[in-house]
Specification:
The structure holds 2 protein chains of 2 kinds. The longest helix of chain A is centred in the middle third of the chain and has 27 residues. Chain A has one domain. In chain A, the strands form 2 sheets. A two-stranded antiparallel sheet of chain A has the order 1-4. In chain A, 68% of the residues lie in helices and 4% in strands. Chain A is mainly alpha-helical. Chain B has 2 domains: 212 residues, P-loop containing nucleotide triphosphate hydrolases (Rossmann fold), CATH 3.40.50.300; 60 residues, no CATH class. Chain B has 11 helices and 10 strands. Chain B is globular, with a radius of gyration of 19 Å. The relative contact order of chain B is 0.16. The chains are: A mainly alpha, B alpha/beta. At the A-B interface, helix 8, helix 9 and helix 10 of A face helix 2, helix 3, helix 4 and helix 6 of B.
Chain lengths: 335, 297
Amino acid sequence: MDWGFITTQTVSAIFGPLAVFYVLGAQGLNLHYGYTGLLNFGQAGFMATGAYGMAIASAPESAGGFGFPLWVGLLVSVLATVVFALLLGIPTLRLRGDYLAIVTIAASEILRIVFRSEALEDFSGGNSGMNGFARSFYDANPFSNGYRYQFGPFEYLGKDLWVMLVGWALVVIAAVLTFLLMRSPWGRVLRSIRENEDAVRSLGKNVFSYKMQSLVLGALMGAAGGVVLALYQNLATPDDFGTKATFIAYTALILGGAARVGGPIVGGMIFYGFFTFMQVTAGQMAKAELLPTSIMDDVQAGIVPFLLLGLVLMLLVVFRPQGIFGDRREIELDG
Amino acid sequence: MAEHAQASPEAPPDTRSGPAALAGVAREIGVAKPDPVLVADSMVRRFGGVTAVNVGHVEFQRGAITALIGPNGAGKTTFFNLLSCFDQPQEGTWSFNGQILNGVAPYKVARRGMVRTFQLTKALTKLTVIENMRLGAQGQRGETFLGALSSMWGSQEREITARADALLERFKLDHMREEFAASLSGGQRKLLEMARALMTDPELLMLDEPMAGVNPALKQSLLGHVKTLRDEGRSVIFVEHDMDMVFDISDWVVVMAEGRIIAEGTPAEIGSNVAVIDAYLGTHHGAELSGGLAGES
């Protein structure tokens, strides 16, 4: 067991691009679920439109893309996400909350399956996804892409530092935006919709319009997460955007505390740190043959964190539904 | 309300609006009022095989307090839902200030000045009392996405808060200002909902059982508030089972039974109306009712 390795891996993960991916996804869900009470189970779909919008528009023509500059790709990401959110919201947001949940989870899976389909391989890269669109992003890197920067015991590649810098900047922007909006009368309407739509209607507010604004804005935050992940990997691949991504984001949100601006950030960091810690530790234990292979081999050990994910989510909901920061009086799941 | 200056003390008395004008109105179902604020015509609402509401024609006088009474299951709340556009009838038209309301979204009805409360209170439990109140204010600059970010809403928010505090004081909820609405009692929630509706500055206030669960001491002051609303020139329509309230404050009473309107008139006349007593008690238990429908519960 190499405890030093486990520690550095865990700490790197806490600040790494994947943590950013989940934090942004969770902040979007915070807006949807935490503040507006919208049950969006398809956040992965919005993350996918973010990643694929950019990937398809900006991947070089040799890789099957359209070869547009990266900023055009980002614009396409935004547009695709807004259109997708409107498409899901228009038919469902007038109905009861459950309909949005059903439609979003189905639509996000449809999107993923379409992106990975053989038939559309020329368009979206099929199973292996789209790559090669991030070159100009790394050209703009103020750090040296291949250089290993040392921070005490931790070291980061220059290219990773650049992704992290941009990623955490987006996290800060999303958090500041959420904070400003939620202390405003606009945020008050959203929180009221979470409590009782009819009461808000009876006071002359256009509930549908507010729910739509919330859906679009939270979707864009998720899309930003998708963009960060795709830039980090220089690859948009369908299986990064399975339902798993949605539920990890939900776990991060509930862990940190819904309806709190800092909740998804701390929740995402702790969750992904813990997840990595479990994964690395299980791998190390298997490698050190601390676990007899008759119980589990190292491949099976890799699944253990997912088992724990389910357990943690259940324990949280039962014993601490308000998460780390939440106010139990304000956010109770059975509300 | 300012738009109805004709009813305010300074303005010359308008003989058509307000409660006084009801004196000359014939006591018959569907009678035309001198200055109707809300008119319903041939409204039918069926739930499967049950006809919950089947109202021929009814007009509600502007600037007056009208009570809508009837036994349980008479369709009063359904009729309220239809009038406020929270439910759609299969047939019929209805209009507020002469504007047809068929197919209008509920929030637009509220914006036009016709605001309702609910029988089962819809307090926003996980918001504080003062936030509940602020939500009611209309035309808030900070309620649009860009307005919220431009932070130009601060001064308006202070005005709204001042208005909300004044109302909370009037409704004796000021000591609960910072509490979550979840910690209010049932009666206090009723008060909060009514106060919140007043934050919209409504022209017509529709109260669905405003007295249910409110303690007797508070009832008297609540009655006073409702009368004040009329004196300010607002119109009030309320559903109520509390006959003391009905007889104390209403200028006109409309009685429903089995979805239909079976009588309308002044409170005193309704109290001795045989059809009404029948509807409430099934047979002629007139002795109990004539003294103010006291037997109703």
